[in-house]
């Protein structure tokens, strides 16, 4: 093969106990369209299901899928030995950290107790326990 095939990230999938609720949270936080959701499959609890949140038209960023995980355990951040850890997080660019933190809290996030570099970014915790960072720039 002379050159590798074109490969690109189209979406990130975030597992959750309440994926449709988490999808609505990120839709509001990012001001992105809540595209669709699916109801729980037979035998799943009422909070299960699926949601899709996509960037607005013309914005070249990956979509966010939210999918139900039967054995979801809320991650601990920072990591705690023997507890569920976060395996990845989103970095969200912002122009004003304080305003972005206030907005994230209004949407349902909490400010993490530990802030490694508070002048550059703020670690937030979404309603399902996933950390995400609000980053200047």
UniProtKB/TrEMBL annotation:
SUPFAM superfamilies linked: Glyoxalase/Bleomycin resistance protein/Dihydroxybiphenyl dioxygenase (SSF54593)
Domain of life according to the entry: Bacteria
InterPro entries: Glyas_Bleomycin-R_OHBP_Dase, Glyoxalase_6
Protein name as it appears in the record: Glyoxalase-like domain-containing protein
Species this chain originates from: Kribbella steppae
Domain Glyoxalase-like: 12-135
């Amino acid at each position: 093969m002379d050159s590798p095939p074109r490969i690109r990230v189209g979406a990130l999938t975030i597992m959750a106990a309440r994926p449709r609720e988490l999808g609505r949270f990120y839709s509001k936080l990012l001001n992105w369209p809540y595209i669709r959701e699916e109801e729980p499959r037979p035998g799943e609890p009422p909070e299960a299901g699926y949601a899709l949140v996509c960037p607005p038209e013309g914005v070249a960023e990956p979509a966010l899928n939210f999918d139900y995980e039967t054995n979801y355990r809320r991650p601990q951040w920072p990591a705690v030995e023997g507890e569920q850890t976060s395996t990845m997080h989103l970095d969200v660019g912002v122009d004003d950290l304080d305003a972005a933190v206030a907005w994230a809290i209004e949407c349902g996030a909490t400010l993490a107790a530990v802030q490694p570099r508070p002048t550059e970014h703020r670690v937030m915790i979404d309603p399902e326990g996933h950390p995400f960072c609000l980053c200047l720039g």
